[in-house]
Design goal:
Radius of gyration: 14 Å
Shape: globular
Order of helices and strands: EEHEEHEEH
Number of strands: 6
Number of helices: 3
Strand content: 25-35%
Low-confidence stretches: none
Largest sheet: 6 strands, antiparallel
Length: about 120
């Protein structure tokens, strides 16, 4: 059975294409993921990224993107019209095919746990 999950993280960078590229590069480097959209908003200084793939690949790509964002986005200098929660504001997982919302909730919990444990 085919399983596809969509992930739509929002990162606190919407102006510097080089920073955005570093984040999307780690997503695309995970085997099985497919980057669908990159939508930067200069006024909000935030980018919304959309990618899909099998659950394990999307889980790994999401973590790696969150880690990369924390490395390359300097929140002490960040300014924009959107409230800033961190280098990564949100990272929702959406069931597309062969997975349930409960599967995505568990995936989100694993990524959140890993972010807390490995990234503090």
């Amino acid at each position: 059975m085919t399983q596809i999950v969509e992930c739509v993280p929002h990162f606190s960078e919407g102006r510097d294409q080089a920073v955005i590229q570093q984040i999307t590069d780690v997503i695309e480097a995970v085997d099985g993921t497919r980057l669908l959209d990159v939508d930067p908003g200069p006024d909000m200084n935030r980018v919304v990224v959309t990618f899909v793939g099998p659950p394990a690949a999307v889980e790994e790509a999401a973590f790696l993107a969150i880690r990369k964002a924390a490395e390359v986005i300097d929140m002490s200098k960040h300014q924009g019209s959107h409230p800033r929660m961190g280098a990564t504001d949100v990272g929702p997982f959406v069931p597309v095919e062969g997975v349930t919302m409960e599967d995505c909730i568990e995936l989100a919990r694993r990524v959140g746990r890993r972010v807390g444990e490995e990234l503090g």
